[in-house]
Specification:
alpha+beta, eight-stranded antiparallel barrel, globular
């Protein structure tokens, strides 16, 4: 395992729910169009989809990795928003209880992606970065923990989707932990919520649905 390191990388998460009547189409849209569209944007390096295991307020989580926050202001990224397909427009309109956050991956350790994920939203200002880094370093040494991330939201770039309630909206820093199994995710969630106590705003575990790397995609035909 690698040590905790600072990065310039960025990650977008879109955490939302969907009406069960439209769930099949929603998943097909993600799997057959939306993930590929986003990963093809220059600067984006991959994407992952998850389904919630603990908690049910938002059942689906999508994470998109980029080289830096600047990739979210590029002409290519803006074009993706101005030329949405009808399938995209329809499914964005069907999302509910959504949180969209563009995050700076401030600290990271380990490598790879686990079959399960722990996501902890922290209360803003509750912990100093150094304290988070120390905790992540200890966590990374535990069996089954593969990768840890400390992400800080960018206020300007984290514009809400139409389905997000903006009243009382909080841009919370996050800790994400990739682990090798759901039981380890559950144990890690319990450990972190106990250790962090009142610093925790929200905590969930997720099951990995699938992952897409930029190098998986064939070149587009002319």
């Amino acid at each position: 395992m690698t040590k905790i390191r600072n990065t310039d990388q960025a990650q977008l998460f879109v955490w939302s729910d969907i009406d069960p009547d439209h769930e099949a189409d929603f998943n097909q849209w993600y799997d057959r169009e939306h993930m590929e569209e986003r990963v093809r944007i220059p600067g984006f390096t991959g994407a992952r989809r998850y389904r919630a295991v603990s908690g049910s307020a938002r059942r689906y989580l999508a994470l998109y990795r980029a080289s830096s926050l600047a990739d979210f202001t590029s002409a290519a990224y803006q074009k993706a928003f101005t030329k949405q397909t009808q399938w995209s427009v329809t499914n964005f309109g069907r999302m509910s209880n959504t949180r969209r956050r563009v995050m700076h991956v401030a600290q990271e350790g380990g490598f790879g992606w686990g079959s399960a994920l722990v996501l902890i939203e922290l209360k803003p200002g509750a912990l100093e970065n150094a304290a988070v880094g120390k905790m992540l370093s200890t966590l990374l040494a535990k069996d089954g923990v593969l990768r840890v991330h400390h992400m800080i939201p960018d206020e300007t770039l984290s514009t809400p989707l139409p389905s997000e309630d903006t009243q009382g909206r909080v841009l919370a820093p996050c800790i994400a932990v990739d682990v090798s199994s759901e039981p380890i995710a559950e144990a890690t969630l319990r450990q972190l919520t106990e250790e962090l106590g009142s610093a925790v705003r929200e905590a969930e575990t997720f099951r990995l649905m699938w992952t897409l790397d930029e190098h998986d995609l064939p070149a587009l035909e002319d």
